[in-house]
Amino acid sequence: MKLDKNYWEERYLENKLGWDIGYVSTPIKTYVDQLDDTSLKILIPGAGRGYEARYLHENGFKETYVVDIASQPLRHIGEVCPDFPPEHLLENDYFKIEEKEFDLILEQTFFCALAPRLRPQYVKKMYELLKPGGILVGLLFDFPLSDSGPPFGGSAEEYHELFRDSFTIQKLERAHNSIPPRQGKELFFIFEK
Ligand SMILES: C[S@@+](CC[C@H](N)C(=O)[O-])C[C@H]1O[C@@H](n2cnc3c(N)ncnc32)[C@H](O)[C@@H]1O
């Protein structure tokens, strides 16, 4: 199966959106709620319908960007949040975006949506996108990696191994405030460039 633009557009067209919880997830909301600096330049890759991006925008984080390879979720964000800057809705492949110098990148069900062979490239791209000292924060699934996906799983050990050469692992632990269907199945992390 090729996880390309066509694949994702088709999922949106058929409304097969098992990942779409319909609201900002509790761990991300909790993290955002303790941020003071609304001038942070923030990216949400593979943002889907962008509940987290919209929450940030509504709370004054006007330098929030999203990237998604599919056009439909970005159109949706523009419709439900008309004052979200259209130039911050990047319809592109994450691996090709040129906007840089992010202070913060929020990960949620994007890493797990990519073919596992792309994981080293994901790390390299995150490193390029962040400012020195920039932070990658979010959630990674904690269930065994297999061929059946997306979502593709992984473990704390694997993620440690993958990120430790480029990032300082400040936190990588079982999330305590996951949404009910994901309880016990995800890790909350903070990695610093
Ligand atoms: C599993 S969904 C998660 C959406 C969102 N993060 C959420 O939690 O609701 C994965 C998203 O990543 C997007 N995507 C997949 N591959 C991508 C790529 N290479 N570059 C940018 N977006 C991509 C898909 O179109 C889809 O919207």
From TrEMBL:
Lineage: superkingdom: Bacteria
CDD domains the record matches: AdoMet_MTases
Keyword terms: Methyltransferase, Phosphoprotein, S-adenosyl-L-methionine, Transferase
Coiled coil: none
PROSITE patterns, per the entry: SAM_MT_TPMT
GO biological process, one term: methylation
Keyword Methyltransferase: yes
Record InterPro entries: SAM-dependent_MTases_sf, TPMT
Keyword Transmembrane helix tagged: no
GO MF term set: S-adenosylmethionine-dependent methyltransferase activity
Pfam families, sorted: TPMT (PF05724)
Record's protein name: Methyltransferase domain-containing protein
Taxonomic source organism: Lentiprolixibacter aurantiacus
